[in-house]
Design goal:
Elements lengths: L5 E3 L18 E5 L4 H9 L3 E2 L7 E4 L4 E4 L8 H15 L5 E5 L3 H13 L8 H12 L3 E8 L2 E11 L2 E9 L4 H15 L5 E4 L3 H5 L3 E3 L1 H11 L10 E3 L5 E2 L1
Parallel strand pairs: 1-2, 9-10
Antiparallel strand pairs: 2-4, 3-4, 5-10, 5-11, 6-7, 6-12, 7-8, 8-9, 12-13
């Protein structure tokens, strides 16, 4: 039975995810450490940080957990039509729409954080941006960008450890721009042998694209095995319609 909230010091390990509180549901621990080693430890345990400015770092592991299995990705008719149009354009060497990876990481994080400035919920504090930028520089956090006529119009970012991808946030400034980035990401991850993408929190947007809930115990077992797998060769470049990463 979960006990009171655990406060962790920088030199102490995080508790197991199954020690999360029932109220508020999924809260595992609190502390002040948001270093790259702490983040790596947390994600390998199926735990992620989520807190507001001025609060201590709060560590969460919801039960159930929303995930997206790549082959279960649902693409709407309108989005599929747009993807086919992009594919035809690229076959004709017309690159008015391009999807890249790790070309504009800071801009993608800023785009995701700006959603909060528009009145939408965001947990991307200044402290979070600094921590994930450091983790990106260390090679574990990646962005996927959608460009239209040379302008960044949408994208997403997330953490990749071994063969496990943990989605963090996405933004869009044009119709379906973030969804296009997600489709290209899923195709790329499928080619790399990734069989589960973490979506963290349940949202209607992701559910419409095929994400579903699984038990935390099942999720943790998968994370344990997937994060121990060999890492993906994830270099900066652009993604083609088949999910290949080009230099």
């Amino acid at each position: 039975m979960p006990g009171p909230l655990i406060w962790v010091k920088p030199d102490e390990p995080l508790p197991r995810a199954d020690q999360a509180l029932l109220d508020p549901p999924g809260l595992v621990a609190a502390g002040l450490d948001l270093s790259v080693p702490r983040l790596t430890e947390a994600y390998r345990k199926g735990i992620f940080p989520w807190f507001s400015d001025g609060d201590p770092v709060l560590w969460w592991s919801p039960d159930p957990r929303m995930v997206l299995v790549p082959h279960e990705l649902h693409i709407s008719k309108s989005l599929n039509k747009q993807l086919r149009q992009i594919a035809r354009q690229q076959q004709n060497a017309d690159y008015s729409v391009v999807v890249t990876t790790n070309q504009a990481f800071e801009a993608v994080m800023q785009g995701c954080a700006a959603r909060g400035e528009l009145g939408q919920d965001t947990w991307i504090t200044v402290e979070m941006k600094q921590a994930y930028q450091q983790w990106h520089a260390a090679g574990a956090v990646h962005s996927v960008e959608t460009w239209m006529d040379g302008q960044l119009v949408g994208g997403l970012y997330g953490v990749c450890l071994g063969r496990m991808f943990f989605g963090e946030s996405m933004f869009t400034r044009a119709t379906n721009a973030s969804k296009i980035a997600l489709v290209y990401l899923v195709r790329f991850l499928q080619r790399q042998g990734v069989t589960m993408i973490d979506c963290q929190m349940q949202t209607e947007h992701l559910a419409l694209m095929g994400a579903r809930n699984i038990a935390r115990e099942v999720f943790i077992d998968h994370v344990s095995a997937a994060t121990d797998a060999p890492p993906i060769d994830w270099h900066p470049g652009w993604l083609d319609t088949e999910g290949n990463l080009q230099p």
